[in-house]
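Annex B, item 7. Sequence and structure tokens for protein A, then protein B.
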Amino acid sequence: MDFSQKLKRIRKENGMSQEELASQLNVSRQAVSKWESGQGFPETDKLLMISNMFSVSLDYLLKDSSGTEIMTDGEAGYYVSRETANGYLAMKRSGAQRIALGVAVIILSISFTMLFEDALGTFLFFLGVAAGVAILVLQGIRQKRYEEIEQQPLIFEADFLSEFRTWYGHQSKRNGIGIATGIVLIIISFALNVLFEDVLNLAPQYEAVYPIFWASGVAILIINGSALISSGILAKNKEHIEELKKEQRGSWIFGVGFLLATVVFIFTGIVWNQWHPGWIVFPVTALLCTAITVWINSREP
């Protein structure tokens, strides 16, 4: 694969037209067309701009990799270079961190209803929820990239795929430890509940510490879970494609379920002042949605 082929591929991977790339580089569309057809070559400053724009090395752009062996788990697919894979994982990592922050802010807002059992607590709760939702919305409207990686069979360079699967084996263990840590933090919150209420007989305000453990645990789960899933899409692409249709069939269930759970939680909190233990609706919803999704998928012929 020579420079012209690489330029055309990474441009398309990033959702850019020739006109858009030309505008970014301050050249004409005809110049980009010539580069991609092998009839011309950009100057050094343009090469540097392309390298920075698409987060690829000059060595990758200039080195002819036409003799590199290609591996795929299917007969045909979407070609993914080392640079593209690293860019995809970096995007998923930063996205997961923002999602974890938004969700953590929402969960931490529950502390206000435990600290202040009056209108102030309710006001601060909704203020925190609004901030968390804003973070999630901003993440949701960010430019979508690398969608092909998650929706199509993938083709890799053989040496990269071998290295990546070795790395994935070690990384998945670290992510597993992270997931276990998140679960342990959530379990500790329940142990503290017994300690504070049944053993030490502390004031209800001490319950405000529980959401700190919930938020921390859930954030850790989101970050490590996302890392495990995104790297697994690359390392186990064939299995991912096989499961994609099943996941798509049940994904709406979680959206509807947690929307209803949020409505129930807010309603019981405002009407009956049952913010605690009203939060139990969320883990119950997660279990029910998971069970329903598994049931739906099991019925697929």
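Protein B:
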Amino acid sequence: MLALQFTMPEWNFSLTPFIIGVLFGMALFLGGLADPDKIIGTLRLKDLHAMRTIFVFVLVGMLGTWILKLAGHANLDVKSATMATIVIGGALLGAGFGMTGYCPGTGLACAAAGRFDALITVLGMFAGAAGFIWIYPTIVEPILALEQYDFGKITIPEYFGVQDNQYVQYGLVPTIFVAGMLLLFLTRPRQERPAPDYAPKMPVRPQPTVESPVRPRQVEITPQTDMPEKRNEPWEIDEGEDLPDVQEEENL
């Protein structure tokens, strides 16, 4: 007999990543990033709501990571800066982002909320991951071998050689955070808000109406040519016509 043996992987459930994932999904919905129309509007530079929200996420995450690192509770694992793969991968992600209106995070969150288009997007992500595994030996590995475009595991302060400067260590991140928040505040969309109910209502004065002057109507009189011309001719009196007595009228 043929005996089949299956080895189940060890399942280690951690509550912290689960809570962080739930909070992240809630933040996506509350921030409006779960709406694909917002994403498409941002990519078309017509509605910058999603871009501003992502910028807030980046600023807050940068400040929080910096504080945790100073407190010794965060250990950063910097990825290798392979520029060729970053450019190609970013172009593919941007194309899928623009066609579907979902990124991997928003796609999973909206699929969990029951959106059918998001579910199709998630299935497409799994298909893309399978395709990446299939082409990895023949296409991806040669691209990864481009060492001249690989900067290694390096940060921006390390690239400029200022990682040991105290002003950079303790002042760069807060400065970027304050400048970014100030920029968001100054470029916020201005909308007229209705006055609250408790605000005193000012009496509205009637505006005087200016009456337009009445212009006289112009009537054009055209001479009538079909009237008979008056001639100075003597009156002709018929003999049988009774004429009034002029003397009797004078006596009256």
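Comment on protein B: Confidence is low (pLDDT under 50) at residues 1-6.
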